[in-house]
Amino acid sequence: MPDRRSVLLGGLALALRPAWGWAQTPADQDIAAILKERVDVGRDTLGLVAAFLDGDRRSVTVYGQSDPANNRALDADTVFEIGSITKVFTALLFADMVLRGEVAPDDPAAKYLPDSVKVPDFEGAPITLLDLATYTSGLPRMPSNFAPKDPNNPYIDYTADRLYDYLSNHKLGFKPGKHYEYANLGFGLLGHILERCAGRSYEELVVSRICAPLGMDDTRITLSSSMQQRLARGHNAGLTPVANWDFSALAGAGALRSTANDLMKFLRTCMNPADEPIAAALKMTLSERRPRAKERDVALGWFVASRFGDELVWKDGGTGGYATFIGYSTKTRRNCILLSNAAAYGANTALATHLINTAYPLPKLRREVPIDPQILATYVGRYELTPDFVLTVRADGGRLFIQATKQLEYEVFAESERNFFYRVVDAQITFDPSDNGVSRSLTLHQNGRDRPGRRVP
User: Fold this and answer.
1) Which of 1, 49, 154, 265 is a Cys-bridge partner for 254, taking CB atoms 3.0 to 4.6 Å apart?
2) Residues 377, 242: one domain?
3) 342 and 418, same domain (yes or no)
4) What is the pLDDT confidence band of residue 23, given thresholds at 50, 70 and 90?
5) Mind listing the pLDDT tens digit for each residue in 151-166?
């Protein structure tokens, strides 16, 4: 969502084809070749659906397999969990409710929660609804009492009572509105507040106010029988099949499922909102910008990147078995929807931004190689990068897993005896040569930085 989360399925033929029956242009051929390479060589995923709009023309290219029980081929009606793209819908729902006078941007979150809930503030400054919608509430990415009974379906048992308990006992470390932090908790809380305010479930609100007006019949939380039959099977980064995710109190952070066809309807409206009933709300989602990082801002739900003389409005998403992207250039009008049925989040987002603007580099094509389990055993241990950030390395036969402090465990994949890469994010690990049967240090390579870590007891 991105909280980033593998096998082999024999006997299914891979398909390389543009949907809709149109003749391929050279650009289509390039896209098809890239998708083929990511599936067959990079092993980032088992299947990809790439969709584009060019005026009234829709172009869809697919490659790979959806792997449902009925062996249904991938197409523009294949259903994917879209994860954190849900946040854009939550932000749009919030904007719509503001324009209807049902809530106000500066309303404190506490206004819409039970009196028994003590929502934290910072030196008297409350968390507002706009702070929640712009990733600047001061709340952390995830609540500290998030402890799923089933890690394969981690959000299902995070109830409103647990959310209220967390808020009542949390102390803000930042003033609301001033500090960006990715916000599964914040958008989950915002969606919960909106449904309490409206007296209707989050799904009912999204369907009635966004999906129905736009004719999006395949964007839902609860799968219809037809959607269930068209659901691509999700896989983790190692390409092992995994369970679908269900949400309770934090639905506004990542609960929606959708298709390329539905997301093209949504994208067309986002790019040309003038004639749509929800046009004013869409414009509002981009009217407020707050800084995220150099050359990057956040709007309401959306990310906005200003690089290479261009401006990209986009949002990615992911669950335990899917990686998704939707975005467009405000200058060239080039756009992309990219849906994957495996949790290779970083590669999926990097590929999609490249398909919008080729100045964004393609993700490096990394090839996994087998490593002797005895060598992997020399890497097992705890490595301290800072006193508060430790990487715990575990081997399981010929596989290696790493868990960072306060994060989930993820598999890393060997591209040489000492060099490993994540599929869930663009990050790599280099182990120093073993000394008497153990590696004494490693280096984490991420975001242009090399961060060494020494082995600790």
Assistant:
1) 1
2) no
3) no
4) very low
5) 999 999 999 999 999 9
* DSSP tag of 358: T
**Rounded distance between C-alpha atoms, residue 434 and residue 336, angstroms:** 45
Inside any domain, residue 440: yes
Q: What are φ and ψ of residue 232, in 5° steps?
A: -70, 140
User: Would you say the pTM of this structure is higher than 0.70?
Assistant: yes
Going by C-alpha positions, the residue among 340, 318, 300, 366 that lies closest to residue 131 is 300
Whether residue 282 contacts residue 269, with contact meaning beta carbons closer than 8 Å, is answered with yes
| Cα–Cα distance measured from residue 327 to residue 14, given in angstroms and rounded to the nearest whole number | 27
Please, what sign has the CA dihedral across residues 258, 262, 263, 266?
negative
Which DSSP state fits 416? S
Comparing C-alpha atoms, which of 402, 397, 410 is closest to residue 431?
402
Amino acid letter for position 374: Q
Residue with tokens 């914040």: 186
332 with 386, same domain: the answer is no
Q: Using an 8 Å Cβ cutoff, are 384 and 390 in contact?
A: yes
Number of domains the chain is built from: 2
Same domain (yes/no): 386, 352: no
Q: Please state, in angstroms and rounded to a whole number, the distance separating the CA atoms of residues 221 and 231.
A: 12
**Could you tell me the residue range of the domain that residue 410 belongs to?**
373-456
Count how many residues are written for the chain. Answer: 457
Span 315-362, pLDDT tens digits:
999 999 999 999 999 999 999 999 999 999 999 999 999 999 999 999
Per-residue pLDDT of 399-442, as tens digits, reads 999 999 988 888 999 999 999 999 888 899 999 987 788 999 99
